[in-house]
Amino acid sequence: MLLLLLLMSPLRPVQARVGVMRGVITCQNQEQHRNAGQEGCRGFDPPHQSDTRTVYVANRFPQNGHYIPQRFADNRIISSKYTIWNFVPKNLFEQFRRIANFYFLIIFLVQLMIDTPTSPVTSGLPLFFVITVTAIKQGYEDWLRHKADNEVNGAPVYVVRSGSLVQTRSKNIRVGDIVRVAKDETFPADLVLLSSDRPDGTCHITTASLDGETNLKTHYSVAETSVCQSVTQLECLQAVVECQQPEADLYRFVGRITVTQHGEEIVRPLGPENLLLRGARLKNTKEIFGVAVYTGMESKMALNYKCKSQKRSAVEKSMNSFLIIYLCILLSEAVLSTILKYAWQEEDKWNEPFYNQKTELERNSSKILKFISDFLAFLVLYNFIIPISLYVTVEMQKFLGSFFIGWDLDLYHEESNQKAQVNTSDLNEELGQVEYVFTDKTGTLTENEMQFRECSINGTKYREVNGKLVPEGLTEDSPDGSTPHMVGEELLFLKAVALCHTVQISYDQPDSTAPGSDPFSHVNGFSANHMEYYASSPDEKALVEAAKRIGVTFTSSNGDIVEIKTFGKIEKFKLLHVLEFDPNRRRMSVILQTPSGGQIMFTKGAESAILPFTSSGEMEKTRLHVDEFALILLKWKESSTEAEWLTARRSQVRLPHGQDFLCEVCMFLPVSGTPVSPPTNNMQKGLRTLVVACRHFSPQQYLDVDKRLNSARTALQQREEKLEEPLTTSRRTCTCSGPLGSRTTTRSGIAGLQTVSKKQDVWLSNQLQDKVQETIEALRLAGIKVWVLTGDKHETAVSVSLSCGHFHRTMNILELLQQRSDNECAEQLRRLARRIKDDHVIQHGLVVDGASLSLALREHEKLFMEVCKNCSAVLCCRMAPLQKAKVVRLIKTSPEKPITLAVGDGANDVSMIQEAHVGIGIMGKEGRQAVRNSDYAIARFKFLAKLLLVHGHFYYIRIATLVQYFFYKNVCFITPQFLYQFFCLFSQQTLYDSVYLTLYNICFTSLPILIYSLFEQLVHPHVLQSKPALYRDISRNSLLSFQTFLYWTLLGFCHAFVFFFGSYILMGEDTSLMGNGQMFGNWTFGTLVFTVMVITVTLKLALETHFWTWMNHFVTWGSIAFYFIFSLFYGGIIWPFLHTQDMYFVFVQLLSSGSAWFAIFIIVITCLFPDVVKKVFYRHLRPTNTQKSQRMTSSSCARSSHMHFLSLSRALSFSRARSHLGVSQWLHRFIGDCSCRSSPFLLLTVFSAPLTCSDLF
């Protein structure tokens, strides 16, 4: 090792010189070594030990003997979980990690090792069945993944190698290869764009398969590589790409490319606009060339395969707790039986009877080992109290039940052709337990569509009339065809709007290589004489379209040249720097070179990110306009004599002194319909604001900013922070000449936005989505608290909250705003707490901003929680994405542990969607990031009501009954076995035959509960939606509470006692009940108990069923029939493969006895009659809200049934020739209308009494 170090040390300067000659330095800490001028260590760092990676274009590595290439992943996509070699061991390991499977494995091994009363088959066969079914399901799913992987990995691609274009398979692509991708093909790896067939080196792509966004996106190549459009030119290209190591964020990429031309090294920055992601598709571009930087499982698409954090429902947690309780019951029974056995054997006549003498070895054996052996034997005998098939049934119920959400036509949005989708089925029942809903505002409660209508420029308000800006107070528009007089401030504002954006233009251009036009372009509605704007944000598109209507048109963007047409005059600006919008900065900035040669910066973003830097100009008027634009719009009915209006408290915007920005304001109003003018024109705003700012640079100032920006853009670490520093400094310290050179100032514009609805309505508050107010009111009646978390300003957020019904007019609105310190925040929280305590208003609402929330969560979390819990509605404004997640986590981890649900439509909502117990994504217009990261996805907010109130209600009652019923029927199953030991001296004799032990949970009682858990409905879905208060009956996991669990468990023990002692009393004393005088034996007694048990537990579930379908009838009566048929065949034939057949002819003899049939009838009635009485008593004397709704539905059903019966009677009185419907059809219609929510036992009672059977059950 010492010799190796000595040999390596003199090589470092050589390596450093080689790195400097090629213009690349790559180290574990790139920036420190670059700034310090230290030597490089390129190529020696293993993958992912360095923060960055170095990629040599076309794999032209340094020509020296000391370079060791880095190892990168190949381009194979592996989404499969198993291989043919590891499937069996890996799958078994994963399945036996489940506690129930592991428990039964231990029981099976115990049966193999010691002498147990039951055959190992009784435990081994059910375990084998469960393991096999699960393995087949997982194996088939993995085979499909293998098939898909092979198809992707074997796709043909073209790679530049050895100076020619070579066809190979996708899996053979290596990092550094130059890949050619043709039009409409998908990118086989993450590529840095080198060139395209376009002169400017740009290309258009769609990322619909990655994030669901269908709009065209433009990606760019650097100028030095965009000229390499042929294989020969690419072969001569000498370039090195340095970038960050792979990460899952689709929208972040930090890198740089170093191109060597004529011995000179040119370094250019690389960002997300230069990276072509695997899975995206090339559009409107003939071909491109790109260098692979991330391949295979290191591509961003593959990194996003990672599963989200596993969410567990409250039902699953309760089920695990119940399993532990039943395990304790099992251990208690085993210990008690073992102790009683030895207590009984204290007497010699029972310890060693004459017919069973012990051997000498048995007498001298260890008593401790014998005790353990007996304990394990009893454990095996009683082990079926733990339901092995419970997990499998629950998984099947969740998987199959999830299809009902996608099939529900009420959750289908016809306009967008989108249906609800389920991304995970593990949380179906959690939809019925939600206590808090956290919702975004823009795009979730509102439609997220914008149109420019009004603006304020330098203190003067303007409105758009027929495509022209008209100052406030003027009613006449300029003559048609005349050019409006737009100079100075107004013209600069329109230019800022037309230049500061990321909008793309698409034309319908014919393909140069094929006849006809591009079908993709045609679908988007382009024509040769028409251009269409595409933008990721609707407000950007609205602003650019507004500027176009007024006369300043954004016409093209070719490379770094942006062209606009100002009232017919073409102006070209050179794009010098772009810093795109992100949720943290909340603004976008561009620096341009004007046609006259000057430099100007435009910044656009949230008013909180721009206003703190404004001070000069008509600031007082501008602030008044901002407050006026934020006035709250409530409702205006066309037929009303006067409108109801509420105004928001004016926000006190405190601006720091010494800032030099001038404010201008523009507003948005609804797209469709003409607003009805309220009594006061000053009270029709309620808009969200957006700020547009501009600043001129002097040549020296720009050189300094340009130098710092270029340095920051080539940084591989903390690039975003370094890019922000020079822009922030320029906003705070730079001064430059105005647009006319008359004064030294900077200028800005404040833009107001309002999301609007496509639906025309007589209400002025049509900016909301359809039925948002009704949905929020329904959630409130259901006992669900709704919190709105938005990034909008305070006034706009309050406006929408009032208009959507989140805040009521009678609600006392409390505010926690603009808190500056911890002490100030704490004092305000105490004042709010005292006010809530002293004020006798029924409901309170709380408004919190992001800055105050940060202070409240820092040291006053308990006080803040106390205030929030006493408020009916909470509105959090100016929220960052991480703050949304913190608020959800705050409620989620509170002592009450409420179930939370988060709903949003944008990327800024992903964090809270993943944090909440249940995440709902809205298929809106801000991409599909929220949908991809959610548990469920719906097209509109209004669908949330049915998703929770109906589907959530059904899923919860179904699985809650499933879990309780499984424990109940297993208690009924194994308790007679325990009681039987008192009559056989605890000799571990089994009561049931081993086949019955094996098939009880698998065949005889499994299907009825599965079908019940898929189709059960306590009340009609329309009733659940019309009466949201019914949701409260199932809240707080009420159907799986300890009291309910105790009831089902005690009921199981009671029924088991009736099974055993009823059979013993009726049949045990008189053992010669056969016709030929033959005596009953223990197998006949056990079979009688088992028969009564199968019938009773099946009919018990029938009593619990309210919604009967043909499948319920089929599996309920079919299960009982199957048991009888199977027992007849099993006991009526001598099977040669069975070693012993204790049950031969036992079942036939049992059924041939009239006394046995009498006993079965009496015992079943004895067990079920108290249940019927209890249900009748509670339903009529102490009914729940759900039961009252059932009675109302049943009364309606009874009246309908009576009318059908009368119609049937009249129909039967007519002649057959005149009858249009046969008797069978009338009966079918009658039964279909009546029996859907009635028990089949008392169906005929509707003919004789007004009380229907569902009133009983």
UniProtKB/TrEMBL annotation:
<feature type="transmembrane region" description="Helical">
    <location>
        <begin position="371"/>
        <end position="392"/>
    </location>
</feature>
<dbReference type="GO" id="GO:0005783">
    <property type="term" value="C:endoplasmic reticulum"/>
</dbReference>
<feature type="binding site">
    <location>
        <position position="688"/>
    </location>
    <ligand>
        <name>ATP</name>
    </ligand>
</feature>
<keyword id="KW-0732">Signal</keyword>
<feature type="binding site">
    <location>
        <position position="604"/>
    </location>
    <ligand>
        <name>ATP</name>
    </ligand>
</feature>
<dbReference type="InterPro" id="IPR036412">
    <property type="entry name" value="HAD-like_sf"/>
</dbReference>
<dbReference type="GO" id="GO:0005886">
    <property type="term" value="C:plasma membrane"/>
</dbReference>
<dbReference type="GO" id="GO:0045332">
    <property type="term" value="P:phospholipid translocation"/>
</dbReference>
<dbReference type="InterPro" id="IPR023298">
    <property type="entry name" value="ATPase_P-typ_TM_dom_sf"/>
</dbReference>
<feature type="signal peptide">
    <location>
        <begin position="1"/>
        <end position="16"/>
    </location>
</feature>
<keyword id="KW-1278">Translocase</keyword>
<feature type="binding site">
    <location>
        <position position="905"/>
    </location>
    <ligand>
        <name>Mg(2+)</name>
    </ligand>
</feature>
<feature type="binding site">
    <location>
        <position position="442"/>
    </location>
    <ligand>
        <name>Mg(2+)</name>
    </ligand>
</feature>
<dbReference type="Pfam" id="PF16212">
    <property type="entry name" value="PhoLip_ATPase_C"/>
</dbReference>
<dbReference type="InterPro" id="IPR006539">
    <property type="entry name" value="P-type_ATPase_IV"/>
</dbReference>
<feature type="binding site">
    <location>
        <position position="909"/>
    </location>
    <ligand>
        <name>ATP</name>
    </ligand>
</feature>
<dbReference type="GO" id="GO:0055037">
    <property type="term" value="C:recycling endosome"/>
</dbReference>
<feature type="domain" description="P-type ATPase C-terminal">
    <location>
        <begin position="931"/>
        <end position="1184"/>
    </location>
</feature>
<dbReference type="InterPro" id="IPR032631">
    <property type="entry name" value="P-type_ATPase_N"/>
</dbReference>
<keyword id="KW-0547">Nucleotide-binding</keyword>
<keyword id="KW-1133">Transmembrane helix</keyword>
<keyword id="KW-0479">Metal-binding</keyword>
<feature type="domain" description="P-type ATPase N-terminal">
    <location>
        <begin position="69"/>
        <end position="123"/>
    </location>
</feature>
<dbReference type="InterPro" id="IPR023299">
    <property type="entry name" value="ATPase_P-typ_cyto_dom_N"/>
</dbReference>
<keyword id="KW-0812">Transmembrane</keyword>
<dbReference type="InterPro" id="IPR059000">
    <property type="entry name" value="ATPase_P-type_domA"/>
</dbReference>
<feature type="transmembrane region" description="Helical">
    <location>
        <begin position="1144"/>
        <end position="1169"/>
    </location>
</feature>
<feature type="binding site">
    <location>
        <position position="441"/>
    </location>
    <ligand>
        <name>ATP</name>
    </ligand>
</feature>
<feature type="transmembrane region" description="Helical">
    <location>
        <begin position="1079"/>
        <end position="1102"/>
    </location>
</feature>
<protein>
    <recommendedName>
        <fullName>Phospholipid-transporting ATPase</fullName>
        <ecNumber>7.6.2.1</ecNumber>
    </recommendedName>
</protein>
<feature type="binding site">
    <location>
        <position position="440"/>
    </location>
    <ligand>
        <name>Mg(2+)</name>
    </ligand>
</feature>
<feature type="transmembrane region" description="Helical">
    <location>
        <begin position="323"/>
        <end position="344"/>
    </location>
</feature>
<keyword id="KW-0460">Magnesium</keyword>
<dbReference type="InterPro" id="IPR044492">
    <property type="entry name" value="P_typ_ATPase_HD_dom"/>
</dbReference>
<dbReference type="Pfam" id="PF13246">
    <property type="entry name" value="Cation_ATPase"/>
</dbReference>
<dbReference type="InterPro" id="IPR008250">
    <property type="entry name" value="ATPase_P-typ_transduc_dom_A_sf"/>
</dbReference>
<feature type="binding site">
    <location>
        <position position="581"/>
    </location>
    <ligand>
        <name>ATP</name>
    </ligand>
</feature>
<dbReference type="GO" id="GO:0000287">
    <property type="term" value="F:magnesium ion binding"/>
</dbReference>
<feature type="binding site">
    <location>
        <position position="878"/>
    </location>
    <ligand>
        <name>ATP</name>
    </ligand>
</feature>
<feature type="transmembrane region" description="Helical">
    <location>
        <begin position="1114"/>
        <end position="1138"/>
    </location>
</feature>
<feature type="domain" description="P-type ATPase A">
    <location>
        <begin position="156"/>
        <end position="218"/>
    </location>
</feature>
<feature type="transmembrane region" description="Helical">
    <location>
        <begin position="1045"/>
        <end position="1067"/>
    </location>
</feature>
